[in-house]
Each structure stands twice: as C-alpha cells, then as structure tokens.
Specification:
Blueprint: H1 3-6, H2 13-24, E1 39-48, E2 53-62, E3 68-77, H3 87-101, E4 108-112, H4 124-132, E5 136-140, E6 158-163, E7 166-172, E8 181-187, H5 191-200, H6 209-218
Parallel strand pairs: 1-4, 4-5
Antiparallel strand pairs: 1-2, 2-3, 5-8, 6-7, 7-8
Helix pairs in contact: 3-4
Length: 227
C-alpha cells in the first residue's frame, strides 16, 4: 500500500480509524479551486476476477466544454476486503496510480464516493484530497451515515444530510425520477461550493459527467479508448 496515503498505519481497523481522524483534521472546507478550472478529473473503482483485481478508472475533461481529454484504467491486486467506513484503504492506492498516469494534473477532482459525509469525516474523496492536495468533491449513490428529508422531485432540488447535528452533505436530485446523489466536499471545496459545481457538471444523466464517464470505464461498460 502507498505510504503516502497511509503513513505508518499498522493495518488494523483501530489504526485506520485513528488515521482517519488525524487526516480529517487536515480537510479544508474553504473554496480554494479555480472558479473556472481548466481541467476536471473523474475517478471510480470497479473490480475484476471475482474481486481479486481492483480496477481504477480516471478521466480528464476540459473544464469549459467537458470534452474528454484523457482516460486511464489502472489495475492492481485487491489488497484488502471491503470494510464499511474504510473504503479508501481498499481503493485509494489504485486510484493514486491512475492519477499519476493522467496527461495533466487536474484543477478539480470528482470521486465516486463520500467526501466528509462519513462517520469520521474522511470518506474516499476527502482522503484522496488530503493526500494529493487537490480540490476534491465526493459524489456517492448511497448514504453512509446521517439523516435527511427527501428533496423535491425536480432536478436541482436538494436537502441537507445531517449527522450528529452537523451538515455533512447535500442530497441532490440530479435527474427526474432518480434517487438523489450524496454530494459532499472532499478537500479545498465548501459545502455549498461542492453542490454548485456538481450541478454545473450535469448533462441530463443522474451522475455528473466526470464520474459518469469514469463509472463506464470502472464497470467495463465503456472500454478504452473513450477518446
């Protein structure tokens, strides 16, 4: 596993929880990304060989047109089983390898997964953001923790996701008759900034373009090349 991502983690669940708490303290929820990013990357993970191979997909889009500029698939042996709340310890090393293979360092990153909408405020998007230093947003399909009132049926409707008295995400209705997305900042993006940016990345589908295209590659519904 990447020492950059996990420091001196001893491999235990208790140690992972401790590291998450430490890294969560480094998360910035202040908008610190370019207002008009030149490039935006999307990341997602799937699995092959009955789960024995981790398949990380990354796409790089033009920040103005959302035209696809680059796409990468990275495969590594799966290093650990799925443990609720510790997704980043399973998937992040492969995601970081995919990031390194992109032709440019993105100005903004959207990860399929939680940002701070996590029991210890360090989902995979937040972990990714702290490790790389890049402005990062998490867009997830399922709630990991917290309670919310369902948003209205119209696209763009949103309600706060609350956990322990704190807003940790927006529940965003991105498409009519689709379940809402969980949109939370990962790093260097504010709560409101995260949902505003994601809304600007919607193109008529449930998922925003960066993670929609990454999802196609990660799930093998779209094979290389996408260019």
């Amino acid at each position: 596993m990447s020492l950059t991502a996990f420091g001196d983690w001893d491999g235990s669940i208790a140690g992972a929880h401790t590291l998450q708490t430490q890294l969560a303290a480094q998360v910035s929820l202040v908008d610190d990304a370019p207002a008009l990013p030149c490039t935006i990357a999307g990341f997602d993970v799937g699995f092959e060989d009955e789960g024995n191979t981790t398949r990380a997909a990354a796409v790089l889009l033009d920040g103005s047109t959302l035209q696809l500029l680059d796409s990468v698939v990275e495969r590594t042996p799966t290093s650990m089983p799925y443990v609720p709340g510790l997704l980043s310890f399973r998937e992040l090393p492969t995601l970081l390898l995919a990031l390194q293979r992109l032709s440019q360092v993105p100005d903004l990153v959207v990860v399929d997964g939680q940002g701070v909408a996590h029991p210890r405020r360090l989902g995979i998007a937040a972990h990714f953001g702290v490790v790389t230093g890049l402005p990062t947003i998490g867009v997830a399909k399922k709630v990991l923790c917290g309670r919310f009132e369902p948003p209205g049926p119209e696209p763009g409707a949103r309600t706060p996701l609350i956990h322990k008295g704190e807003q940790i995400a927006w529940m965003l209705r991105s498409k009519l008759r689709c379940n809402p997305l969980i949109v939370s900042p990962g790093h260097r993006v504010s709560m409101d900034g995260a949902v505003q940016r994601v809304m600007g990345l919607l193109r008529g589908y449930r998922l925003p373009e960066p993670t929609r295209l990454a999802d196609r590659l990660a799930s093998r519904r779209g094979e290389m090349p996408l260019l």
